[in-house]
Amino acid sequence: MPTKDFPLLSCAAFAYLDSSATAQKPQSVIDAVTNFYVHDNANPYRSLYPLAERATEAYEAARGSIAKFIGAKTPSCLAFTSGTTMSINVVAHAWAKKNLQKGDTILSTIMEHHANIVPWQNITGCDSGLDLQLINMYDNGILDLEDMEARFKIFNVKLVCVTHVSNVLGTLNPIKEIVKMAHRYKAAVLVDGAQAIGHMPVNVSRLGVDFYAFSGHKMLGPMGSGGLYIAPQRHAEMGIMFAGGDMISRVTKKKAWFKPVPYRLEAGTQSVADIIGLEAATEYLNNFPNGLKGVKTYINQLGKYAWKKLKKIPNIKLLGPGPGKDWASSVISFTFDHDGASNGERIKNQDLATELGKHGIYVRSGLFCAQPLIEERLGLKGAVRVSLHLYNTVSDIDRLIEQLLLITKK
Ligand SMILES: Cc1ncc(COP(=O)(O)O)c(C=O)c1O
To answer: I need a surface site. Which of 73, 127, 243, 393 has the fewest CB within 10 A?
Structure first.
């Protein structure tokens, strides 16, 4: 069982069921970060002595491995960022602001994390002349692609921003289909891969996306690492987000010339050790029996098991499509029917999660940074979320169910 590879979990008294917030790290990732500081610490691309050259080589080797891991055709398609939030903001500022014009529309969806809504609110509206619209979903948590197509027909859509996997509903969106539709209408597609990558095989080239954003810390890598995939056909369209050292090819008193993608998007000193750690995370995932396919199968079995057990608990209402082709299985959210509490008291989702926490079962409750979805679309005050990764076991789920039964029966 891989649990033994994760120092925080190997002798833990708790069941960690909050990997959608952040995943735990295997020892190999922790070692890779430490080794960089112990043996190779220098600032890449600055100096020419052997230590600095080693740091540069390690940094570029990590780019190569991580680019391959996501299915990018060349390492130059991968810019390092601090994570999904920053990657999406890079697309907003370095691409959308430069290439979109008054009258253009950006389509996001109602099931997005704030990271894929707020940056778009930030650059649209008022005097920008840009319009932001959110595509609806059906009550079962599946995206309404007819609604999407209808908007393509009416509005001048230039960008579609959609999550690969919903961090609330576990919905697995049909990215290939969305890309096909968007490209037919000459719109670009940005995918928020925060909850997908590291949980299943992801190949950005096969998906045909224009941009793919991801966070290292959700795929067993260090916090502070992450990336943005930029398809080759978008390279020439990229402006800059941050300006400063190392992203320039020449600077005069009046003007600067920027390096090509990805370097123009990596201003200043990067989180190099964390990127090396992220490379180690990709190695760890690749080495799981049967690689990412194996990870997906494992999480899928566990997710189905959890869904089936949760479904049997009276008063628990599961959210999202559940087992089937539209479901990623690593994210399971539910609400507890307050009025069903036998002692007549309302058990709030937050109290339920706190109570579970007291018994060593770590789940998340609240709005999950998806307030438009939870409040406006689902009409809820919050929910409880169980999220899984490859180190979770059936016994974690059994512990959860046992405690839930005790709490909800009180
Ligand atoms: C779907 C989704 N998008 C974006 C983010 C933001 O990720 P980060 O905080 O790593 O930038 C998250 C984090 O939970 C997420 O679940």
So the answer is: 127
Distance 157 CA to ligand 1 centre (A): 24
Question: How would DSSP label each residue in 33-98?
Answer: HHHIIIII-S-TTT--SHHHHHHHHHHHHHHHHHHHHHT-SSGGGEEEESSHHHHHHHIIIIIIHH
Q: Which of 11, 126, 161, 369 is catalytic?
A: 369
Catalytic: 369? yes
What's the pTM? Answer: 0.97
Q: Does the Cβ of 195 fall within 6 Å of ligand 1?
A: yes
Q: Is 108 in the pocket of ligand 1 (CB under 6 A)?
A: no
Choose among 344, 404, 341, 386: nearest CA to 18: 386
C-alpha of residue 27 to centroid of ligand 1, in Å = 23
* 226 CA from centroid of ligand 1 (Å): 11
- Structural domains in the chain plus CATH codes: 2-26+291-409 (3.90.1150.10), 29-286 (3.40.640.10)
Task: Kindly report, residue by residue over 152-194, the tens digit of the pLDDT.
Answer: 999 999 999 999 999 999 999 999 999 999 999 999 999 999 9
Which amino acid would we find at residue 255?
A: K
